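User: Batch of two.

Assistant: Item 1 of 2:
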Amino acid sequence: MDTTPTTCRKPRADAARNRARILDTALRHFAECGAGTSLEAIARDAGVGPATLYRHFPTREALLAAALETPAGELLAGREELRAVEDPDEGLRRWLLTLEKYFGTFTGLPAPVLAALTQDDSPLAVSCHELLAVTDEFLTAAQQRGTARPTVRAHDLFLAALFLAWTRGAPVDDDALPTLRQLIETGYSTR
């Protein structure tokens, strides 16, 4: 039996460059064409073959998860500011707006995020679970204060934020989004 300690090798420089180039190109494509953009087009524009893309990012969800690392980090860092809001209802309302904005990072993003909620092996699932936990934290504070209905679950509000983000990218009346937000808030609020 081999008792030699294993060492973690750093990726080769060209592999690291390829990964960074793929990710930069994917960010541009996701911003321009949405979450459903062609992975083959990303590979081609990054100057790599599809096999290289899939070696670094085996699925669309893996590439999306990597592309969302920075916005997700900013979102989670912003929760500290919201924790300082004295009114738990206002903290929850602001968190849901921030969550909605995050889900609108790329057109079409709500669909893969929704799918990740039911697939624990999805690379997006980890961030979904973390965002659900933060949503639950803000909801629980509002429920303890009596400003949010006790029957509402964090999962419900998470889905509402996904829905609103989807609506932002859908061809609907410009006045619909504020009205929908108000309907959702009326639904969870006891005020």
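Item 2 of 2:
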Amino acid sequence: MHTLVTVEVLLLVAASPGLAGLLLLGPAPANLPLAAVCLLPLGPATAAALYALDHRDRDLADLHPARAYRRGWRLNAVPALKLWAPLLAWLTVIAFTLTHFTATGLPGWWAVLLAAIGVGSLLWGAHALVLTALFAFRARDTARLAGHFLFRHGRATLGAASLLVLTAAGTAVLTEALPALLAAPLLLSLLHSSRPVIAETQEDFTA
């Protein structure tokens, strides 16, 4: 519990500049690019949280999650941004297209396809952030491995998808602040569902 609370607080602090900006933006589709910019700090903050939670799992005597979080942020801030920024840009294009879909003149099934691509991109991003947080690969290699594991480990991808659905449902029914308030438990669940991915990466792709 101590680790979860500490990591939760540190994640919110690290992502606070962008989260504060989001609070000032209205729900208008025209604000989507600005919202993506505001979400940029969330990538490194999430990678650092995943690192800290994984470190705590492996060392039960470690009662200093803040130290692990700071180390995770130093190691993973730049690698995470190299993947997180393009992912946000891509998702922004998809979201902007869907919110202005009637103006495109495309058939309705294109909207379904774009939504599916967006969900798949989010699931790829979940694998990519876990790999970035725990391994020191080049960005291109992390991107390829995340795509590889997206289909190879269906249970891990399904686990990430279930967390995505749970978060979206909770946000719609309860409050938009729910993902931020439950970030640490959600990331711990993501780590648990990603264990096959982590194990195969350690066995086959590290020295």
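The mean pLDDT is 88.
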